[in-house]
Specification:
The protein has four helices and two strands, in the order ββαααα. A hairpin with a 2-residue loop joins β1 and β2. Belongs to the THOC7 family.
Length: about 210
């Protein structure tokens, strides 16, 4: 089907025409296959194989005659050989094409296999790289944690200073404990003295009464 445009009275109209095919498109594959098998280049020409068969049949029939027909047999034999040669040349060409296609297919299969192998290798390499990347992340995290701890340790005073501070604190504690003991003893002494004084006062008070 084709679409054509025509102008009628200043108007442009579209005309749809139907295209007639010589053969049904569905039968194209069958026709092409038959041409390849029979070596026919046109749809109306006589197949070369049939022509070769006719030449051979004519030659055989002439040979089977009892007459002295050597000239006719030679002529028919020559015609048959010529037709055979004509038929053989496309076969040799087709054979060369088939061989070239076979080699091309083998080369394609080799390229395909190599490509698939490279794809598999690439996938394996990607998985290995993923594992290495994950391990690198873990190592980096550990290094960062170690660096943080190192900075914390570096921020602390030296051990000698820490020991000195501890010594001074222990010394102050000992002095405070000594002062506390002395104060407690003094307090006990004052309590005893006060009790004695209170006892004396009470005794003298009783004498007056």
């Amino acid at each position: 089907m084709s679409v054509k445009a025509r102008r009628i009275s200043g108007r442009l109209e579209t005309v749809v025409t139907k295209v007639n095919y010589a053969f049904d498109p569905v039968d194209d594959d069958k026709i092409i296959r038959n041409r390849l098998l029979t070596r026919t280049t046109t749809t109306r020409g006589e197949p070369p194989l049939k022509k070769l068969q006719k030449k051979f049949t004519s030659f055989v029939l002439e040979v089977d005659k009892d007459e002295e027909n050597f000239n006719d047999c030679g002529r028919l034999a020559k015609a048959f050989l010529q037709e055979l040669s004509t038929f053989e040349i496309p076969l040799l060409k087709s054979q060369a094409v088939v061989e070239a296609n076979r080699r091309e297919k083998e080369s394609f299969n080799e390229v395909k296999d190599e490509t698939e192998r490279q794809i598999r290798q690439a996938k394996t390499d990607i998985e290995d790289l993923k594992k290495q990347l994950e391990e690198s992340k873990i190592d980096r995290q550990h290094k960062e944690e170690c660096e943080t701890i190192r900075k914390l340790i570096s921020a602390q005073p030296p051990r000698s200073e820490t020991e000195k501070v501890i010594y001074e604190l222990n010394k102050e504690i000992a002095e405070l404990e000594a002062e506390s003991t002395a104060s407690w003893r003094l307090l006990e002494l004052r309590k005893k003295q006060f009790a004695l004084l209170l006892h004396v006062v009470m005794s003298k008070t009783e004498l007056f009464y």
